[in-house]
Every structure is written in C-alpha cells, then in structure tokens.
C-alpha cells in the first residue's frame, strides 16, 4: 500500500466491508459443510430396521483378514466377511466345521481337511481347497508379517497342499495336536488376493460383503446373496465408532445404534445392556527380579492385600469374578480347585514386616504401571491397588501409560533401570487352551514373563506335549504350582464385558464377542420384520 | 426566576439558545461533586457568546450538557436548556437526536481524536446528510465535497477518500467545523476550537468560524480560556469560576470595566495590560478542587477583596447595569476603584 | 499490500522449518513403534525386518534427511497403521476440522460482537453483568465435560439432537460446534466488551452523537470497526487453540478430523501421519496469522500506511 | 429544586483529597468484593487445607463408594464420596493445593519469560524483535495439547513436566503482548527523554515501559490462569494429567465424567470449583485494572441501580 490516498474508488469499496467478506466466507463454509454432512445421508437412513447399526470403540486400522487377530479388525472381519476352515465354539471350546467339513490327524505331522463344496466367494469365484491352501500360505508363510502368524504360529512354517478341490493337507514341523484350533484363526480369502501387500477391503465367503468404507466415518456391509449358509436377518449392516463409552451408551439409549461394544457399567442403562464373560483376566505382574518384589513373601502379601470383592463391587459394577489364575473357567487347563487369595490385610502386613526384618528393602518405590483405556474404571482400579499395597507397608506410585509405553513394560526385552514394576495386565485367552497363556506369561523366558523357575518351565513343556484329559490336568497343575512357589501374579478378576443391545434386536454375546461379532446371529427382537 | 438568569435583551421571539440554572453533578471516586452550579445565559441568532474560564471551571461540562453528550459519570440535576424555544432536557432520546445537527451542533477541540480514524473523511462529512436528510450515499458524498470546498480543503474530491491521519491539524479542524455546520444549525457550540493549533492557523480557523456564522446566521457559543479571542470575536461573555458564573455582559463593557475581582485578575494577567518593568500580575493561587469548594464565595481564597462576609455568604449574580451582572459582594466597590 | 504479504510469507517460512525439525525429533523420542505393529510374540528377526522396512534402524540424521527429501517431493510417507499415504490421510481429515473450526470461529466472533457490544453499550447494566458472568463461566467450563453433558441432555434426555457422528443433516453440527464454541465465545465477549467500552468513550463517538447518530449507527458504524483490532488478534490466537479443542471434540463425537488423527497417530506411533498432520496444521496457522495481519490492514488505514512499501 | 446558587457546591462530597483506599473501592463493587473473598478462600484452602484433612483425601473405603452428598456421614461426607469411597470434600481441598501448584507456577513462568523477552524485543526492535517473534510463531504453531501428549508420554506425566509444558506453550502469548506494548512505548517522548540522558536500556524497560505494560500483561495472565486449569483438565481427560494418587480439580472432573448420570457430584463439584476460581480471578483482574488506571477509575463510581430511573438527562449514556 504505497500511496496514502487510494487512487481508485473501487478499491475502497472492496475493502470497506471486511464483515461482509467474513460473512461470505462463513456462508461458503456452511454450505460446503452441509454438503459434506449430507453426502452419505442416503446411506445413513438407518432407523428403517433393515440396517443393523453397530458402534465400535475404534475404527479398524485395516480389514485385512490376516490381521484379524487384532481385536479392532477381527470384530468386523471374522465370520462376517471372511470365514475360517474351522471355528471354535466359545463356551464349550469344541471345534465346529465351517469351510472344512471334517479333519483328521493322518500322520504325526500331517492333518487332512475335507473342504466344503458349493461355496462361492463374494466376487462369484468358487471356493476350493486351493483357496484354502493359498490363504494359509499367505497368512503364515509369506513376508506380509501378518498378525495372526505371530499370534498363533510363532515362527513355525507350515507345508500346505491342496490334494484335490475338496481335500487339503497341512504338514507341521513337529507334532501339533491343536493345529485345527490354530487354523481357526486363519480367514480364507480367494487365491487372487495380493501376496505382496495387505488388502484394505477383503473378499471372503462370509454372510456379509463390504459395500463401502468411508474413512473415519463408517463401514457399510450388505448381505451376501450367494451365501452358502443360512441368510442373515438384516440385509445391511453399518459400523461406526466412538471412543467414549458414555457416547456409545447414549447411542443405544437414543436408538441411534443397535449394538455397542465395551460399555461401562457407570454410564450404561441396565435395560439396554448384556453382560458376558469375555475371557479376559486382570492381574498384577510382579517383576521378581527387583527388590522388594524378588521376595516371594512380598509377592504373596500383595496377593492378600487386594480386596477383590470390593474392587469388583464398587469399581467393576459387580460384573467380574475374583480370579485365582490367569485363565478363566472354560479354558483347557483351568484349575477348578484354586481359590482366590484371601483378603487379609493384617496377615499381608505381617508378611511384609517379616520380609523387612530379613533385610528386604520394602520401602523401595514400586511403580504400578497401567494402561489407559484397558477397561472401564482402570484408573480407579489402579488407585485402589496402589492404596491397598501401600496399606500393607509398600511404597507404590502409579504410572498410567498409553498402549505403546505399556507394551514396553509388558514385552521382552523388558525396560532397564525402571526399578521394581507391578504391571497391571489384562490377558485374554482367545484360543481356549492354557498353552497360549503359559508360553507367554509363565515360562521363565516367555515374551511377557519377567521370571520363572526351571521346574515350572519343565512342567509347562511336559503339559504341552499331552492331549485330552491329561493335558487339562497337567496345565491345571502348572497353574497351581505357579501360585504356590513362583507367585509372579497377583490376580484381580476374571472380567466380563458389557454389550449394549437395543431392545429392537436379539443377540446373545459369548466370550468371543469382543473379537468376533457374528452379525448373522443377530435378529430382530420380535418375530416378523418391519 | 433564578437570579442567574439574564434579563432578556429587547427583541422578538425566543433566543436561539437559552440556558437557565443549569446544574451538573459529577461522580468521582471520592464522591459526588457539583461541576456546574446554576449557570444561565442566552444567545440570539447571529450573535457570539464566549464562555470564559480556566480549565476545569465547568465551561466544557456546560457545553456537553447542552449538547446532551455528558459522560455517564456526570448528570444534569437541574435547570433548563431551551434551543429555539424547546427545552431539550425534557426531550426523549430520539427527540434529542433529531435536533442534533440541524438545530444544535458542536465543534470539539482535538480534531485528531474527534474524527473517526478508520473512516474516510468524506464519509464522516456525509453522515449528517445521511442521518437527517436521508440522502443517498452518492448525493451525501457530493454534499460533503461541497462542504470541504467551502471550508477550504484543496482537491476536495480526492481528499474525501483520505483518512484523518493523512491531514494536518488545521485541515482536520476545518473538517470538524464543516461537519458541524453541515445542516445549518441554529446554534453552534465551539469547544476550544483552536487550542491545539499554531497561532497562524488559529487565526484562519477563527476567521472561518466567523464567516460561517455570518453566512448562516448562527448563534455561536465560543468556549475558550483565551481573552484575546473573546475580545476579538465575541459579542457577549460569561465568565465562569469553579462551576459558577461570576460575571456576564457585553464583552466591551466587561473587559473595560470588570465588576468581579476574578475577571479583573484575568484581564490584568494579559501582557498588553501590564506595565513595563513591573512583574506580570497574575491571579494568585489556584482554583479550588471541586470537592472542596468553600461555603461562601467560591473565589474567596484568591480574592484581594475578601472579607469575613465572603466566607459566610455566597454572593448572588445580581444585575450591575444594563444587561450586565456579577456575583460579588463588592462589585460596586470594584467599579469605583 | 502485495509486498506486505510477500515479506510476511518469507518471514514465516523459516519457523516452518523449525516446526518440521521439532516434530520429527519429538516423534522419534516416543520410541520405536515396532512393538505396536508386530504380534506380541514376534521374533527379534521379525522386529529387525520391520524396523528396516520402515527405516527405523537408520540413524536419526539419515531418517531426517530421507524425510526432508521426500517431503520436498510432497511425499510424506506411509501410515504404519493403515498402509495409506500419510499425505492423503491428512488431506482427507483436514477439511472436517477446518469446517468445524471455521464455523465455530465465525459464530463465536459474530456472537461475541453482538453480545459484547450490547454489554459495552451500557456498562454495569443488567445486560452487561449477565453477559459478563455468562461469558466468564463459558470460558472456564472444561470442554469434554460440556460435550458429555450436552450428549446426555440434548441427545438422550431431550432427544433434540443426534448424540454424535457425522451422518445426518445440519443438526449433527450443533453439539460439536457448541462444545468448541464456548471458550472462544466467552473470551471474545470479554475482549469485545473491553475494547468497545474504550471505543465508545472516544471523542469521535461524541462527534457522531452530536451529528444525531442513533445507537445502532454509533456502535456499528463508528465504534465497532475501531474496537475490532484487539478482537481479531485474540480471535486468531483462539483459532490456533481450537486444534486442542478439536482433539477432544472429535474424539468424543467421532469426527474424522485432524485432531483425532493426530492423537491417534501419537498413540499408535504413526510418525509419518503425525508429521504430515502437524506440518499441515502449522502451515494453516501461519496462513491464519497472515490473514489476521491482512485483516488488520484492511480495517485500519493507519496500519496499511505503516507497512513499508 | 431550591435555589442552586444557595447550595454550596460540593458539600455532598467527603472532603478528602487523596484517592480513597482500595478496600473502600473494593467494598463499593460488590462483585469484585465477592470475587476477592472467594479467591482468598481458595488460596487459604490450597495453602493450609491439607493440614486439616490429614489422609482423608486418599483414605479409601470401597464399601462407602458413591455416597451422595448428605448430612448423615459427618463433615467429610457432606459432599458425598467418590467411587473409591473417598470424601469428595477432602479431595476438593487436597486438589485445590495441587491445582494451584500447577497453575500458578505455570502462569508465573510464562508471564516472566514471555514478558521479559517481549519487552526486550519490542524495545530494541529490528533483528532481535524479528527473532523473538519467529520463536513465538514456532511455539504457537505446535498444537500445544499434542505436544503435551508426546512429551508427557515420553517423560512420565509428573506435575513438574506439566508445569513446564504449559509454561512454554503460553510464553508466546505474553511475548507478543509485551512486544506490542513495548514497541509502541519506545517511541514515546518520555522514553526518548530517558534515552537521551543515557539511561541504560535495561533501566528504561524496567522503569518506564514495564509499569505501563504490566496491567495488560496481568490481565492476560488471569485469563491464562483459566486456560492452564482447563488444559490440565484436558490432559487428565486424555489420561496424562496429574497422576493419582495426587488429585487436581481437572483430574476429578475427568475421572468423574463417566459417573455424570449416576453420581453427578463427583464431576460437577470440582467443575464448579474451577469455574468459581477462574471467574473470580477474571472479575478481580478486571477490577484491579480499572482501579489502577487513573483514566478508567471513574467507572467504579457508577451507582449500581441507575439504569431504569430516568436521569434529568435521558442521554444515551455511552461510556
């Protein structure tokens, strides 16, 4: 602006109305905003009773089937979009045929599966044993670094062979008595799927197919017309996500959603919720390598200091059960004879005192690490545990961490120079066999274990080689032995999930619901569709 | 009738501005004080009245209360202000607004702050026409340019688009005057219109004011502390001290024969009255704080004639000749001296 | 004006470089994301492969150099979480937040000008006191608290508004905007009132009144434009602060905006997305600052003249 | 009306010449007086409250969980209990200390650093001013909440770190304000005069510029006080604010939000505490600003119930 006197009258008019300019911009914003908001209003037409509306806690990072052991992915993908060969009945632990009609152990290292015929993928391609072989190969043997690979197979390599369109053989490196269970985690995709990169939107044989995924907004599914099994009740389904439990509950109460996952008892209307055991167990993992936690009296004292009933009633809405071991009832190897450590403050205090008298530095500060959002009321539970531990004479501080930080504490290599750590963990045994727990949490060099004993390692290895009743008994023994002589864990509770369910729909959640929500099992509450 | 009212000069109809017994209270952190106490005067069309006094004597406050522009801390508590016969103090807000501009107008002293810094001056000059005449933007702008020409702004059409900070002090004062006379008001109050200006410019502005007054036959109230200006420009003068009128009358008479010691003191302090070789006489002391005005005569503390009576009884403004009055117990003595 | 703009833009570019560097280093401080993306039982070899594949095993300067050279070609890397291009993820989320913030500030400024002027017109009047109390309260309510109460009251209790989400008509904007709005509105009302009181006691207002201008003309014709300068400055700062509010609002209401994207990418150690998001936000904030300066110049001719040619 | 000339002017006024005492002025403005009392109360509670409550703020009783406010459970039960059965009253008292010990140092730090830098930069102008302003730009363009999240996750969320982050994030605000004031003042006559006498610039800033800029800076600081408390609360909402067993009002609001439907008192009472404190601080700051500014002081003299009754001059009293 060089001249002090503007040379043209127009310019003055142009700049004389910043308010007007502001208004114009605002109007433009408003209209464009409405345009965005309305862009999928057609799809949103949801209250018609023909779309099943599900609200999740977070948006799935991907829908790649080989990542479906990630809870956020699996809850959408598994048994809705894609299906495995075999599925595990969550309550009994029994294996049911799905895309495989039968299976048998044909040689010590080989299993043979009979493949269902007459099944087609959502893209119209027929499903054969070759697709099954391809899918297993892709998930387990490829360079995709699939989550399911690490989760159920470790570094084991499988040899897969489609003998005929209806017959598949899988050969393991060493005898694997629970291979069918492991394979229940592998979702089947057509052989045309990329092996170079993970897919964002998968194609499967499931009852629903993905019609659209609006990033950040919603995922829409439509009924698969060619589905081989019973057609699901709802022609369409839509997933949205809200991270706040109160908002999810409000959506159910308001009728904006039919199903909401992971509600918490404080904000949910009890009329619209169903509690179910979710196979998760919370416990404090005590780092036995650091004083004062290296003294078993201190570890046992912590077990006795925890007021499980108080915590469950006051903080968990009475939904959980006191725990005495890392696996809940129903999992192979659960020890029915173990009772939760008694809540005895005086005795616990005496134990700590005894240890202190023996020179254990009980006043060294213990860090209680917990993860934000692990379950509803986590910070209150952490505070209660801190208080209860402090009450028996220990010095405890709380560190609330995010997932990444918590993982650093949880996984080997464990962080150094952080002093004694009591890590609040929540373990979910999705597979239903204690072997998945012991190999991670109890073996002395287990990825999520801080220490152990040779004897315990030996017992675990022995149990893992067994099958049937003997296996159950051996693992039960392992769990009892750990409580008695190792005491790495101070258990809190076997948790139960809370599912929001609108009165309009009928659905019975089971222990697998958090990882795998079968939309085909959901129906309208009353007979007769509106 | 309050004694403060001047006897109306012979003539027909109402005076253009007639103020009677005007009282203004001012709230300060330490309490309420009376800033203007029973002030009265009148002006006819074509005549100029000067309100003379030291700063803080209440003359500006008087002007603001006539124009209805007092700050919220000040409040008119008595008296009447008649403009062309209507008592504006009894009017409602919108009634008052109708008069502001076409009937009664005011020129402020600091032209820089009195002009809106973010509006082109042309628009500010056009505003009276837009408000009172309902003119279109374009017609009002033409009028503004005319006005600018009249008050002597060079290149008015171009300069109408400029902003106040782009003008010199004298030009700004011209603009302000132009704005005030835009609608040919009956009464124009000029509140120290030349204080902030150079001496040469002062003369130009005063000349402009006089010309406009003659041209438009306005009653002019000139508020000033400058005796020379009063002597040259005004017909009548009202001398104020600490919120009170101490002397009024035609300028020539008052200045030649002051009947109040304060007026006399003021006149003596002007260099041209001084005698070479003698120290310049000044009115000793300073005016009282408004919160500590004494009970008797307001001027007693500085008055060379003060006596016991002055501390007890406040002198009324009494007639001391044809169309003259003064508020002093000893005005006769002063005249004789 | 153009030279003014050019100078302003050049002097802004240097800080941008520091922002990029700062975010890059801060992100690396949060540790290696390998644990989050590999199965709990992944072998050391798998971890090493993952690190190598995403370049986390290089030294920080090498990583930075790679990042800068790629960024210069507008390639901001790939999201670890979704495998999408970070740039496109950010660009998808950005308009949502921009609209939310734009609407919020527009309403906040207009509303505050109205309420603030009303309050300033008669200082100490009943309106002034009520406006003062309400605005101060509004400015001190925690936003997430307001949001949740809003959902419970207007969403569930009264059933007037949808609880959350972006699916639906214009009514879905009400609660998110109201939540974002309260603080800026509260602060701005006070600022408007303060500067309006100042402007209304200026001599030119007396002059306007001596011309017979009615209150509307006095306030909106004369005082408003003079009092708007501090309002603009504060509004600019508040808009920057809206990014914080957006994190909370988008988290609660499930809006796919940049605030939620940033917090998620921090929690998921999704560095590429975090860096792209912060960079875009920083650029926007710079643009905003320039916009505020330009508005100053538009509103006040004295500022215009002060800018050297 | 009696003869006005007979009434000596100014008798209604107390004949004091010096300005009235500040507490008299304060007493006249009822809102400011109430605000001052509330603030004083909050500070007293924050300073000494912990001496009285003992371990009440952390003493848990899971069997006394979520008791509503009532008179039945003694003094500490007056405001009910939280989900862990702790007395909400005791926690409010305990939290007052923590909240202020975060907010006050954070505001003071940013005020001191920002003002010093800003005054210096504005006074000298040129390169120094430019650099200072660009630093402010850099800090401002980081979304502060997110930086807080990163830093607090990396370096453990201690109260000290929270104070540091909040202080750094707010420095630019003071820096800009102080710079603007100082840049405007440096060209004033009295500063020029001081400069021609050879007064060192540090002294000029201290003696001539700071006193004039201070009221504005203090007003900004009060508003910031509110901002800091709210940000601390937002951090708690994200789980990285004050860490239990310490407690702040922000943390109480954040933790109590899930009990809004079942136990309103947990989240509402600390929210009210935040609102009351910040509103009081703002009211008092506005008052102090008026009272210390000679040109504005008269505003305090306005009688309260004036509107409505028509004064003799029905002017649109525009202040």
Would you give an account of this structure?
The complex is a heterotetramer of chains A (530), B (337), C (309) and D (319). Chain A has helices spanning 9-15, 18-38, 41-44, 71-77, 129-141, 147-153, 179-183, 245-254, 296-305, 308-315, 345-357, 378-391, 403-410, 434-442, 454-464, 468-486, and strands at 51-56, 86-88, 95-97, 100-107, 110-115, 159-164, 167-171, 208-214, 218-223, 236-241, 259-260, 273-286, 321-322, 365-371, 395-401, 421-428, 489-501, 505-506, 523-524. Chain A is an alpha+beta fold. Among the domains of chain A are: 79-183, Alpha-Beta Complex (Dipeptide-binding Protein, domain 1), CATH 3.90.76.10; 277-495, Dipeptide-binding Protein, domain 3 (Roll), CATH 3.10.105. Chain C is built from 13 helices and no strands. Chain C has helices at residues 2-29, 34-37, 44-53, 60-72, 86-121, 126-139, 143-157, 174-200, 203-210, 215-253, 258-267, 271-299, 301-306. In chain C, helix 5 (86-121) runs parallel beside helix 12, helix 7 (143-157) packs across helix 8 and helix 11 (258-267) packs antiparallel against helix 12 (271-299). The radius of gyration of chain C is 24 Å and the shape is flat. In chain D, helix 8 packs antiparallel against helix 10. Chains in contact: A-B, A-C, A-D, B-C, B-D, C-D. Chain C: InterPro entries: MetI-like, MetI-like_sf. Chain C: The chain crosses the membrane at residues 12-31, 98-121, 133-160, 172-192, 271-292. Chain C: Residues 94-292 form the ABC transmembrane type-1 domain.
Protein topology:
The complex is a heterotetramer of chains A (530), B (337), C (309) and D (319).
Chain A: H1 9-15, H2 18-38, H3 41-44, E1 51-56, H4 71-77, E2 86-88, E3 95-97, E4 100-107, E5 110-115, H5 129-141, H6 147-153, E6 159-164, E7 167-171, H7 179-183, E8 208-214, E9 218-223, E10 236-241, H8 245-254, E11 259-260, E12 273-286, H9 296-305, H10 308-315, E13 321-322, H11 345-357, E14 365-371, H12 378-391, E15 395-401, H13 403-410, E16 421-428, H14 434-442, H15 454-464, H16 468-486, E17 489-501, E18 505-506, E19 523-524
Parallel strand pairs in A: 1-10, 1-11, 14-15, 14-16
Antiparallel strand pairs in A: 2-3, 4-5, 5-7, 6-7, 8-9, 9-10, 11-17, 12-16, 12-17, 13-17, 18-19
Helix pairs in contact in A: 9-11, 14-15, 14-16, 15-16
Chain B: E1 17-28, E2 31-43, E3 48-52, H1 59-67, E4 74-83, E5 86-87, H2 93-99, E6 104-107, H3 111-114, H4 121-133, H5 137-150, H6 156-159, H7 169-181, E7 187-191, H8 199-216, E8 219-224, H9 227-233, E9 236-241, E10 244-250, H10 251-256, H11 261-268, H12 308-312, E11 318-321, E12 324-326, H13 331-336
Parallel strand pairs in B: 3-8, 3-9, 6-7, 7-8
Antiparallel strand pairs in B: 1-2, 1-4, 4-5, 9-10, 10-12, 11-12
Helix pairs in contact in B: 4-5, 4-7, 5-7, 7-8
Chain D: H1 22-28, H2 30-53, H3 88-124, H4 126-141, H5 144-154, H6 159-185, H7 189-196, H8 201-237, H9 249-256, H10 264-292
